[in-house]
Amino acid sequence: MSKVCEICGKSKMAGCTVSHSNRKANRQYSANLQSTTMVIDGKEKKVTACTKCIKTAKKA
Question: Which end of the chain is more exposed for a tag (fewer CB within 10 A), N or C?
């Protein structure tokens, strides 16, 4: 499975893990990607999309 949303292009983000003693270590945040089927141009297609895009598509 790809690590990029096929609809919006969301991928990994960089940030820091902060401990209780306020030490900082680099880390990466992955997007919450799911495999789902969506209707695109009148055809059902299997896509890898982030949960925000899936939720928005269900509303429309």
Answer: C
**Three-class secondary structure of residue 53 per DSSP:** helix
Report the distance separating Cα 12 and Cα 30, nearest Å. 5
pLDDT digits (tens, 9 = 90+) for 9-40: 999 999 999 999 999 999 999 999 999 999 88
User: Looking up tokens 């919006």, which residue turns up?
Assistant: 8
pLDDT digits (tens, 9 = 90+) for 34-54: 999 998 888 999 999 999 999
Can you tell me the distance from the alpha carbon of 35 to that of 13, in angstroms, rounded to the nearest whole number? Answer: 20
Q: For the chain, state the CA radius of gyration.
A: 16
What are the angstrom distances between the C-alpha of 3 and each of 8, 23, 27, 52?
A: 12, 29, 16, 15
